[in-house]
Amino acid sequence: MDEQRGKDRTAGKNRSGKGIDDLINGVRNGNRAMLAQAITLVESHASKHAEKSQNVLNGLLPYTGNSIRIGITGVPGAGKSTFIEAFGQHLCNIGHRVAVLAVDPSSSITGGSILGDKTRMEQLSQDPRAFVRPSPSGGTLGGVSRKTRETILLCEAAGYDIILIETIGVGQSEVVVRSMVDYFLLLMLTGAGDELQGMKKGVLELADSIVIHKADGDNKQKALTTKEEYNQILHFMKPTTNGWEVRAYTASSYSGEGIKELAGTLECFIEITKKNGFFEERRKSQLKEWLYSMIRDDLERRFFSHPKVKKELPLIEQNVYLGKETPTKAAREILGIYKEEGD
Amino acid sequence: MDEQRGKDRTAGKNRSGKGIDDLINGVRNGNRAMLAQAITLVESHASKHAEKSQNVLNGLLPYTGNSIRIGITGVPGAGKSTFIEAFGQHLCNIGHRVAVLAVDPSSSITGGSILGDKTRMEQLSQDPRAFVRPSPSGGTLGGVSRKTRETILLCEAAGYDIILIETIGVGQSEVVVRSMVDYFLLLMLTGAGDELQGMKKGVLELADSIVIHKADGDNKQKALTTKEEYNQILHFMKPTTNGWEVRAYTASSYSGEGIKELAGTLECFIEITKKNGFFEERRKSQLKEWLYSMIRDDLERRFFSHPKVKKELPLIEQNVYLGKETPTKAAREILGIYKEEGD
Ligand SMILES: Nc1nc2c(ncn2[C@@H]2O[C@H](COP(=O)(O)OP(=O)(O)OP(=O)(O)O)[C@@H](O)[C@H]2O)c(=O)[nH]1
Ligand SMILES: Nc1nc2c(ncn2[C@@H]2O[C@H](COP(=O)(O)OP(=O)(O)OP(=O)(O)O)[C@@H](O)[C@H]2O)c(=O)[nH]1
Ligand SMILES: [Mg+2]
Ligand SMILES: [Mg+2]
């Protein structure tokens, strides 16, 4: 560990100097400093790094895909980081190597809340079997999600076989994380369903399992009641994942109660979905969705950043709102301008 | 009525001959044959009709927007058509003019099930205060939805102040209809929640009100129980529309029980949302979404129909699935080919 930390500091100095092969080999050998460097490269906004980072990724691609990717969401304060610390340590103890990442759409605005300065994973981040990486900063959610997907690949190539991704329910972040993980955990608190009201629509339907968290002390009995209430609601919903019944569980990251059981539930989930083919199917459709969303994003980015479009669209849009022309006609107009000009 | 039917036949003969001004005036005067012709024009796939139809629409645009647009969904056999017949007649009786349209994504595949040959709105379609138009045939859901939006405008210009749009839960049709209406009704059947399981995820969350339908005879008591069960679930959900609590109601299109009350609920909904500004806000964001979705659709259509893209994309996609390259690199490749070639 200490040796690697040392390396990290040295390497940081001539970061961009490291060759592609060095990075590929370093990551493959599980060198943490090299992994950190490769992630920094992938996260870079500089277009000069884009080519290099794609070459590193492509070189590592044959060694990726062998982890279980897990998304963890919940309102701020649900205890996501604390849970990841407890759950991650347990997974390390039973033989896994765990990488922790974050998708935090708020980080570009507020400076980041999850996995940021106030990270509570002090023990896990000291563990040689774990790797904790804070949220990539800046950029749109689309950009952050691209970086996170690529960081997952890097961590897999480095030998981490469990990837835990923390995200908070801001914007579309849960949907984005759902689209890159095999298993999605929703952390909830007690309070007789009142939290559900505060929860965004549809989040419950993304989850593979629900954890009523902080089920300890005075809160334990209430958590058990809340669990039953959720199970009733869940009974009415179609499962997210073929052949898997979504259920609520209780757990405490303080007492550790329920943590081991959740690891068992996860194992069960993976076994079932690998057997019925859903695991592979979802991975494939996630790749497809990733590819197509990048294509769509780029087509839109080109269009909306075109000078003529930027100049004309607001006027045309205003005409639509004022009832001066139909959206159909307006769309034709602006697309005509774009086509004429070329891109 | 009979006179207008006569006109309809005559006009049909030289349909494409009718001038733009004739159509605009005819629709504005509430001439049903002219309205039918204008809708046929708007629904046409022929590109030579596109210009004319946009001119007609633009001429009528100042007279649109003054209706209440209502979406009605439910599984096949939920009784949507029968309900529209009963509800529509009641609305006519209390002074409204009602137009009935359909968005049926299955029609291009199966030849149409809703509002098709087996339409059950015999009485309503005879009523001079009502106008019933079957589902536009053919085309993608995106195409059908453009036509329906434009048909709504035509019906409004013709003086219909209530537009009822029937749709079945196939593909994304409910989401599409939700994005074009002010009020969204979900018709459900009794059965202690079992139907919910068969329902697609998220549909409940699109609704402004839920109707437990066919609440008559032996079924009535069960319907009341089901209503309570739904109200319990709804209690846990965030409202779709600001300031409006989604509730379940019972109704029977056979006995007529509950129909009048639903008209009252609708009135209440409109009053509240007009007062709190949500009505206008949603209309505006629907216009924006319509415009932007047409732009996006066209950008994608151009890209995916480009010969080079059609040739290269399947190979590149395959490489992604086989783990030979990352989606990021693959996207860059195919976009590079597209850009190079121009469009
Ligand atoms: N009683 C109890 N408290 C807990 C438990 N887990 C976390 N907490 C407390 O809950 C608070 C929030 O914990 P975090 O882990 O930071 O929550 P988070 O969901 O990661 O929060 P954000 O990252 O800011 O969205 C802290 O004060 C924790 O000590 C638990 O199992 N039991
Ligand atoms: N008991 C009872 N039966 C009804 C009621 N309304 C409709 N039905 C029956 O339910 C069946 C389906 O009615 P439709 O109106 O065609 O249903 P739909 O939802 O429009 O069906 P599709 O358009 O095919 O999706 C018919 O046999 C109707 O007679 C009602 O209020 N009570
Ligand atoms: Mg946190
Ligand atoms: Mg029908």
Automatic annotation (TrEMBL), chains A, B:
Pfam families: MeaB
Record field: compositional bias (Basic and acidic residues): 1-11
Residue segments, region Disordered: 1-22
Molecular function GO terms recorded: GTP binding; GTPase activity
GO CC, alphabetical: cytoplasm
InterPro entries: GTPase_ArgK, P-loop_NTPase
Similarity comment text for this entry: Belongs to the SIMIBI class G3E GTPase family. ArgK/MeaB subfamily.
Identification of the protein by name: Methylmalonyl-CoA mutase metallochaperone MeaB
Species annotation: Litchfieldia salsa
